[in-house]
Design goal:
- The protein is of the alpha+beta class.
- Helices cover about 30% and strands about 25% of the residues.
- It is built from 5 helices and 7 strands, in the order ββαββββααααβ.
- The chain has a 5-stranded mixed beta barrel.
- A hairpin with a 5-residue loop joins strand 4 and strand 5.
- Helix 2 runs parallel beside helix 5.
- The radius of gyration is 19 Å and the shape is globular.
Length: about 250
């Protein structure tokens, strides 16, 4: 299996292949990461890996500790993730390709990246100014009956959208048809559903597309039944994820 070493960007959310990730980068460890990525040749991809945090905080504490107000906050690339950072993260993440890295006048960065390939986290190195990780690329296997399952997921997802939106027509892409390629369907639906991080993580690390679609079909039916019994549930915006304030 192919392995690669990349900068590591932990988040309190899950990134899926094909999904857009906006980032507002202000912590020094991640600013250092972006400065390093900007040194990448223009014709080469500016890649980093995103992993969901299992135990820890996306933003390191910057105020004196509690209950001792004189305690100094932890600093460094692994701040907030304990003595063994690899244990603080979920074991499967996603490579992100930064299409835009814009430095502001105050030294912070505005970043727009897209998820590309799933990776397994093998090790984490905290010896530099930012975390890096050794990663193993994970192939996306179709599994059995992926095409038929994708069509079933799309039908259930349309009903789920209508219930969330109060029976108004909404889609993943405004004015566009939903995709029909099974793996793309599986990732877009996983990203768009209103689920907690452990459930989204489970979908990301499914062994193949068919397994992910089967799981999504069960979740869509279950969530739609819950929404049907709670008609006043507010409808979130299904087409956008929040910008991450790292």
């Amino acid at each position: 299996m192919t392995t690669v070493r990349l900068p590591l960007f932990p988040l309190n959310s899950v990134l899926f292949p094909g999904l857009v990730l906006p980032l507002n980068v202000f912590e020094e460890r991640y600013r250092a990461m972006m400065r390093a990525l900007l040194k990448t040749p223009e014709d080469a991809p500016r890649r980093f890996a995103v992993v969901a945090i299992r135990d820890g905080h996306e933003v390191a504490p910057s105020d004196p500790g509690m209950p001792d107000p004189t305690a100094q906050p932890e600093r460094g690339p692994a701040a907030g993730f304990g003595p063994d950072p690899v244990r603080a993260f979920h074991g499967v993440g996603c490579v992100a390709d930064a299409a835009t890295i814009r430095e502001r006048a105050d030294g912070t960065f505005e970043v727009l990246a897209t998820g590309t390939t799933r990776v397994r986290l093998l090790s984490v190195d905290a010896s530099g100014p930012f975390l890096t990780a050794e990663l193993q690329e994970l192939p996306e296997e179709p599994g059995d009956e992926a095409g038929a399952l994708a069509q079933g997921v799309l039908r259930s997802f349309r009903q789920y959208q209508k219930r969330l939106a109060g029976a108004r027509e909404r889609s993943l892409s405004t004015g566009a048809e939903l995709p029909d390629e099974p793996s793309v369907v599986s990732y877009l639906v996983a990203a768009a559903m209103v689920l907690d991080t452990p459930t989204k993580q489970r979908l990301l690390q499914a062994p193949d597309t068919s397994s992910r679609l089967r799981d999504e079909l069960k979740l869509l039916r279950s969530e739609s039944a819950i929404i049907r019994s709670l008609p006043s549930l507010p409808a979130p915006d299904l087409t956008r994820g929040p910008t991450s304030f790292n």
